[in-house]
Amino acid sequence: MVIFRTHEVAKAAGVHENTIRQYEAQGFLSPVPRGTNGYREYSLLHLEQARLASLALRWPYLGNKQLLIDLVTSAVNGDPGMAMEYAYQYLAHVRVERTYAESAIEFLERWAAGHVLDVSAHPMRIQQAARHLNISIDMLRNWERNGLLTVPRDPNNHYRLYGSAEFGRLRVIRMLVQCGFSLMAILRMLEAFDSGKTSNLREALNVPVEDCGDINAIADNWLNKLVALEERAKRLIEQVGRLIELSQMQKPST
What we know:
By secondary structure, the chain is mostly helical. The protein has a domain at about 95-225: Orthogonal Bundle (Multidrug-efflux Transporter Regulator, Chain: A, Domain 2), CATH 1.10.1660.10. The protein has twelve helices and no strands. Helix 5 (about 80-110) packs antiparallel against helix 12. InterPro entries: DNA-bd_dom_put_sf, MerR-type_HTH_dom, MerR_fam.
């Protein structure tokens, strides 16, 4: 049997050696025997389990991490069928989120093409506007503070007045926010729109994080991230399949 050292398993999984030790301590690897010299002796099975843990648990991931933890522990604890089921559940979750994001962009493109999204009988004050859109007043104020829209004011009392133009813009903002896009990404897109660039707004929403100077904004470049997460979900399924095949190969012949 081929024996691997910690640094070899770490390199194969694309993680630090300490991460492999953490995987072992957290039950993401089968028990690792030690040689007479006290060194850990990892098998090919451990190596593939480490690859699975790395694929499943590294940031970013979508939704509740517990599903991915359950996936890994099921594979390690002798229930690869359940692990495969979890892997397909995760793939479905990512695909649903991607569909939402794609739909939000189509909604945006319809608005950008000049289609009216809201026809209000008369301008509304902020309380009425919040009720009309079923969102909070604080949310409306926050979007305005972040530069996503400018609301005209009544010249007599200076109250904000939301009309059909503002409601159309707000519906686009709300849908994009609900589908995971960051306020910074939405702001970049709206700045492009306001400057007269009404086509290719999809690209404006998906500027890579390193190009916009905010490395902490996971929701920037959101659609592209969802595409990458879907590809990683498919790799998870393939990796669980490898573990199943390896377990079959290691079964004693009868």
